């Protein structure tokens, strides 16, 4: 037990500085330290109504969901690397593993007590960018960060989750 620390490879809760949890296929697969914005944009459709040609009437058009980036320190967990590889397999074939490359997620935001305060469903995501090993510099005191960029078809908040009461 060097430096008084033990390694627990079966740990399911996020580490102390990780305030986000990602669930995939019904199990927590990783705690992440940084999550990009959940952002959606809806097109504005302008049209003119009836004989009123002096101003535009505005209506909502198509909605698009922006990519979501997640970061964490390097770990022994291979789940995200294996999933990222399903879009472009290691054997160099151009065939994505179509049954596996889109996944549904649950993103949980935790309060200081480690309880779920908010939860979002991220639907039919696929990996567009994956950084398995960042630049490493032995002269720095930084932590190696693994990152993944997801392309969701859509997301929505789980309204059944409410902030736990204190006390």
What does the model show?
The structure is a single chain. The protein has 167 residues and is mainly beta. The protein has one helix and ten strands; from the N terminus they run ββββββαββββ. The chain has one helix at residues 79-87; strands at residues 20-24, 27-32, 34-35, 40-49, 52-65, 68-73, 103-110, 116-131, 145-151, 154-157. Strands 1, 2, 3, 6, 7, 8, 9 and 10 form an eight-stranded antiparallel sheet that branches. The two termini are 37 Å apart.
Largest sheet: 8 strands, antiparallel
The number of distinct helices, counting runs of at least 4 residues, comes to 1
Helix content: under 10%
Write the element-wise H/E pattern from the N-terminal end onward: EEEEEEHEEEE
Which blocks of ≥5 consecutive residues have pLDDT under 50?
Answer: 11-15
Evaluate the radius of gyration. Answer: 21 Å
Amino- and carboxy-terminal Cα gap? 37 Å
Structural category is mainly beta
Broad shape: extended
Number of strands: 10
In percent terms, what proportion of residues is strand?
Answer: over 45%
Rounded average pLDDT: 77
